[in-house]
Write a structure and sequence with these properties.
Layout: H1 16-34, H2 39-54, H3 72-84, H4 91-105, H5 109-120, E1 122-123, H6 127-130, H7 132-144, H8 146-151, E2 154-159, H9 166-175, E3 181-186, H10 194-203, E4 210-216, H11 228-244, E5 247-253, H12 254-261, E6 270-276, H13 284-291, E7 297-301, H14 308-317, E8 324-328, H15 338-342, E9 351-354, H16 362-368, E10 378-384, H17 395-408, E11 415-421
Length: 424
């Protein structure tokens, strides 16, 4: 049976998002009336009505039709031309093509269906960051057509707290049953009570194995849950989530992020961390290494005040598993052979990346070329003229150190890159 009555007209004072959602719902109702034996059409219309009623959105009647006039094969050729022609295209050109694909999907329902798997697989949108309506529209679009939600593999939520719609995002994540990559990034500060909300968000993502959690530079007064019940609930939810992760990327103040790092990550193989306000009294690496026994790839940024004893304990624990290490900048507290202390522990290290920020010394380069160092397959150093802040370093000694590294690993190296950013 078709849906008997579309939603009533709204008064002009209703919100734009309410009008938009109701317009979409009424369009679905029209389609369901035209296709009285199409069960999918009935389901979509009912899903739209349920959302509008559930969240008390405005009601507005509108009818519009989209008619396909070309054979489906022609549409497929057009889409393939846009999607597959990547050779020689700049990022700007690819962005234009992405907009073209979006516009193409709006032309008719046939193109919409054919484009969906390209538009929804890795979902990114600036409007989701600053537009409350777009967050609700995304939830609406996935609700009325579940195949869109099933297409999504990667989703990024980047938002300012005033624009973050927790209910919309929670319902969206619950629909994305095939989601494997989730990014939650905040501008300036986190929403109030967000850690409690975070527990519910990650609990809605049973298949996520890659998690990015960024922008945690400022602690909101109500960031951490207050009651024992809230703490226990979050701990239970996040502990389960942590065990399913293979990749974790985290960025923020150590005070903001340390709560979620104190869980076991038995399957974590890749970890990237950009931290601020790190205290040299912390035993961070000792604790982290005990909770990440399978770590293979580690990227460290801005651990300038790390404790050498703590570093040694952590790197010794990772010695048999760690295969890739990136550091930028180095630990500036130790200016003499920092890498000489750490590299001997990493017997299986294959890839080493040193960033351009100040701090690496000539002695670090010498340590890389020592016989006891691991057998590298890839070495990259983005060098700038701060290397010459070391009194022992000059053009001749630095060049010789680079040659020594190349000769030491000539039998195993597949990639050897020296990026120069010199200021003279």
């Amino acid at each position: 049976m078709p849906i008997a009555t579309p939603l009533h007209r709204a008064n002009t004072q209703k919100t734009p998002i309410a009008k938009s959602l109701t317009i979409l719902t009424n369009t679905l109702c029209t389609i369901s009336e035209q296709r009285c034996y199409d069960h999918d059409a009935q389901r979509r219309a009912l899903a739209g009505i349920d959302i509008c009623r559930k969240f008390r959105f405005a009601e507005l009647a509108l009818r519009e039709r989209m008619v396909s006039r070309l054979p489906t094969e022609i549409y497929i050729l057009i889409i393939n031309c846009l999607v597959n022609d990547r050779n020689g295209k700049s990022p700007e050109e690819m962005e234009v093509r992405a907009h073209t694909l979006t516009s193409l999907a709006s032309t008719c329902r046939t193109l919409q269906i054919l484009c969906e798997r390209y538009l929804y697989t890795n979902l990114r949108s600036q409007r989701l960051s600053t537009d409350i309506g777009s967050q609700w529209l995304l939830y609406f679009a996935l609700s009325v057509e579940p195949r869109r939600a099933h297409t999504i593999r990667s989703l990024r939520c980047e938002s300012w707290p005033p624009y973050f719609q927790y209910e919309a995002w929670l319902e969206t994540l619950r629909l994305c049953t095939n989601l494997t990559h989730l990014e939650l990034v905040w501008q300036y500060s986190t929403p109030k009570n967000f850690l409690e909300q975070l527990g519910n968000l990650v609990a809605a993502c049973p298949n996520v194995t890659e998690f990015t959690y960024g922008g945690l530079w400022y602690i909101n007064d109500r960031f951490w849950p207050g009651t024992l019940e809230q703490v226990a609930r979050f701990s239970q939810q996040y502990a389960k989530f942590a065990k399913q992760l293979c990749h974790l990327e985290i960025c923020g103040s150590i005070d903001c992020i340390q709560k979620i790092l104190m869980y076991d990550y038995p399957n974590l193989s890749s970890f990237t961390i950009n931290v601020d306000d790190y205290s040299k009294e912390c035993k961070y690496f000792e604790e982290l290494s005990s909770r990440t026994p399978s770590l293979e790839r580690l990227e460290l940024y801005w651990f300038e005040e790390a404790n050498l004893q703590d570093l040694n304990i952590g790197f010794k624990a990772w010695g048999k598993t760690l295969q890739s290490l990136a550091m930028n900048p180095p630990i500036t507290k130790y200016t003499d052979r920092l890498l000489g202390h750490l590299l001997p522990h990493l017997t299986n290290l294959e890839d080493l990346y040193l960033g351009p920020q100040p701090g690496f010394q000539l002695s670090d380069l010498h340590a890389i070329a020592q016989p006891g160092a691991p057998r590298l397959k890839s070495f990259q150093w983005r060098v700038n003229d701060t290397i010459f802040w070391d009194f022992c370093a000059n053009s001749e000694t630095v060049n010789q150190a680079i040659i020594d590294i190349f000769l030491a690993y000539s039998e195993t190296l597949n990639s050897f890159i020296i990026d120069e950013e010199l200021g003279f």
